[in-house]
Design a protein that fits this description.
Blueprint lengths: L3 E6 L7 H14 L3 E5 L2 H7 L2 E4 L26 H13 L4 E6 L1 H12 L4 E5 L15 H22 L2 E6 L6 H10 L3 E3 L7 H13 L5 E6 L6 H10 L1 H4 L3 E5 L11 H19 L5 E6 L2 E6 L12 H10 L1
Parallel strand pairs: 1-2, 1-4, 4-5, 5-10, 6-8, 6-9, 7-8
Antiparallel strand pairs: 2-3, 10-11
Helix pairs in contact: 1-10, 2-3, 5-6, 6-11
The structure holds adenosine-5'-triphosphate.
């Protein structure tokens, strides 16, 4: 009897999830195993939406954003009863291990399953890059490049009209995308959830930018910052007579997620998928496959869940020097 494993994607979709599914399926099949795909994350696991995949099922998906398996948020999986149903469904099909491709919440669910004695492996995947256990998670690089393209375009139009712009980027409570895209795009200022913002200080930065002869000013705001795009626009509008300028804002939103994965994410996804299959073969369960210092790592889920990776204060300092 061939070994049977299953793979699912959960939480927010991230560019590269498809490449990771493809890798798990093809690397599993290469070992002579049967690989099942679970539709719609943990919800599909509970509903029994579990289908055998062939190498053809994952053909032509490497370059596609999103996830062919679908993803969902599932409150029922947060209950013991829900997870028991999921385990029953996998046992009925003879599935011996599960690979969960997802972010913080998804890996908490994965750990909860592991604590009930089910063999699991996680793959670090979220555009937020807030997962402890991986320097960089799947989807981050592509999302960053999408944010960067928006910054570059906004700068062109801002320069033509001598305007000030705010660009809001995703990342929930983590400012990684805002910080890194702001650094890479040469933003005049960046607001982050991790650091308090004084709007008067920001106004001064914008005024100084104009005084120094800049033809535009751009603030990158993290969606989770106290001063996100809405709050900043409100503040600047309220004080526009005194400050002498107003801001226009663009919210990038889900545009950041949908892009075709770049080379970095496709390679990372392929490596993560392979590592997950090898990890199952070695019966090294309850770990998160990630990458630290260019090396593929296996961090116990117990050390991952309930924690959030912070931003690097040295990068914050650098962004301030360069703006
Ligand atoms: P992203 O960070 O990219 O948005 P995520 O994986 O953090 O993705 P969440 O919505 O936080 O996304 O979690 C996805 C799903 O994981 C939840 O809908 C739920 O089914 C499951 N989950 C989250 N936390 C737990 C938990 N503590 N116990 C069991 N299941 C959980």
């Amino acid at each position: 009897m061939p070994k049977k494993i299953a793979v699912l994607t959960s939480g927010g979709d991230a560019p590269g999830m498809n490449a990771a599914i493809r890798s798990v399926v093809r690397c599993g099949i290469a070992k002579g195993w049967e690989v099942f795909g679970v539709k719609n994350g943990y919800q599909g696991l509970i509903n029994g939406q579990i289908e055998l995949m062939t190498t053809r099922h994952v053909g032509g998906i490497l370059q596609r954003g999103g996830t062919i398996l679908g993803s969902a948020r599932c409150a029922e999986f947060e209950t013991v009863e829900g997870r028991k149903k999921a385990i029953r469904n996998m046992n009925q099909l003879g599935i011996e291990a599960l690979v969960v491709i997802g972010g913080n919440g998804s890996q908490s669910g994965n750990f909860a399953l592991h604590q009930m004695g089910y063999p699991v492996v996680g793959i670090a995947s979220t555009i937020d890059n807030d997962l402890v256990g991986s320097d960089i998670t799947l989807g981050v690089d592509t999302a960053l490049n999408i944010a960067l393209e928006a910054i570059d375009r906004l700068k062109v139009t801002a320069s033509s009209h001598q305007r000030a712009f705010i660009l809001e980027v995703m990342g929930r409570k983590c400012g990684y995308i805002a910080l890194m895209s702001g650094l890479a795009g040469g933003a005049e200022a960046i607001t982050l959830p991790e650091i308090e913002t004084d709007p008067e200080e920001l106004a001064e930065t914008i005024q100084q930018a104009y005084e120094h002869g800049k033809s535009h000013a751009l603030i990158v705001a993290a969606e989770g910052a106290t001063y996100n795009a809405a709050k900043l626009t409100e503040y600047f509008d309220k004080h526009k007579e005194r400050l002498g300028f107003s801001m226009r804002s663009t919210i990038l939103g889900h545009v950041q997620r949908g892009g075709a994965p770049g080379a970095y994410d496709r390679i990372l996804a392929s490596q993560f998928g392979w590592a997950a299959v090898e990890t199952i073969e070695q019966k090294n369960y309850g770990v998160l496959v990630g990458q630290k210092g260019n090396v593929i790592t296996h961090t116990p889920l117990a050390d991952v869940v309930g924690k959030t990776k912070g931003i690097d204060p040295e990068v914050v300092r650098l962004a301030r020097i360069l703006d």
